[in-house]
Amino acid sequence: MVTALPRPARRALTAAGAVLAVLGMVLWWLLPPVGERAPSGRVTLATGVPTGVYARYGELLKQDLARDMPGVDLRLTRSEGSIDNLRQLVSGRAAFTIATADAVAAYQVGHEPGADRLRACARLYDDYMQLVVPKNSPVRSARDLRGLRVGVGTDGSGVQLITRRLMEAAGLDFDRDIVPVRVGIDQAPGRLEHGDLDAFFWSGGLPTQAVQRLTQRFPVRLVQLGDLSEALHKQGERTRYYRAAVMPADAYPQAQDGEAVKTIAVANLLVTTDREDAALTFGITRTVINSRDAIGHEVHAAQNVDLRTAVFTDPLPLHKGAREYYVSVKQ
Predict the structure, then answer these.
(1) Helices (H), 39-169
(2) Is 105 helix (H, G, I), strand (E, B) or coil?
(3) Which residues have a Cβ under 8 Å from the Cβ of 180 and sit 6 or more positions away?
(4) Each residue's pLDDT tens digit, 256-299
């Protein structure tokens, strides 16, 4: 049996509840908006191999973040690429990372741990698939790679994910028809130069510094991949994140002989999880957008970061903090 409180006690409780409600409203009004709070502490961003675009982008973002949010100590960690980055993110080893849209989709489709917790901050720039061979190579298409030693990216990289799909589009078996050498952009250029590779694939922003440096010391050529576009998209839903693209003639002048090269491209996303602080995510998203021109001076691909397209982060929804940032700049 529940004993009713005397009427004076009930009135006292009601009055106390009203006071608490008013205090709650006052405190809510006194709290600064998400974008005006000052996050602090150590934050980790997983990037990529040292000579890749992800790593350089992270270094420059760290500098600008130090100016915009001095209380945040951004730490950069290397990785093998997009898939490895997502694993670092969901395991808690990183709070933010960069990953290609196709890698994110593959992670989701595979029901990998924490896939449902992934959230996006922004669409960044596009990665362009690059097939690099010695200048005198007979290779004119990925279909000509049969029996050759090919740098395919490390396990856990977005490069290898796309390479496998390109090999299928070319009618080649990844494990049987080529000799797959699992190295990334930190090793592939040197191995090609010294004759240990016949070709290598790379997926990155234009121009990628490691490829650019290779073209300046060793005669190489970029192989078109445009002839695989139709076959690639016939693979279904998993390849809908790729688009036909053209590398401009001045991307790597020494390697292109003044000619544009047809290829495929895929968007990069700045990714976090739903457990990340909204104020921190708001601030990092703001710095990413506002630093486009400054970072773009050194990482040319970053010039394509655009407020108008940054919200198109398929297959991920925006993080609450990022969404609040975009709403704030449109008011």
Answers:
(1) 53-68, 82-91, 101-109, 158-169
(2) helix
(3) 150, 152, 174
(4) 989 999 999 999 999 999 999 999 999 999 999 999 988 988 88
Distant-in-sequence, close-in-space partners of 113: CB < 8 Å, separation ≥ 6: 90, 91
Question: Over 212-239, what HEC string results?
Answer: HHHHHHCCEEEECCHHHHHHHHCCCHHH
Q: pLDDT for 176-223, tens place per residue?
A: 999 999 999 999 999 999 999 999 999 999 999 999 999 999 999 999
At 20, the pLDDT band (50, 70, 90 cuts) reads very low
The owner of tokens 């390697």 is: 255
Tokens (6 digits) for 132 = 């690099």
3-state helix, strand and coil shares in percent for the chain, rounded to the nearest 5: 45, 20, 35
Cα–Cα dist 297/315, whole Å: 29
Residues in the chain: 331
Closest CA to 277 of 95, 141, 143, 99: 95
Nearest to 125 by CA among 36, 199, 53: 53
Residue 117 pLDDT exceeds 60: yes
133: left (phi over 0), alpha (psi -120 to 50) or beta: beta
d(CA 289, CA 69): 14
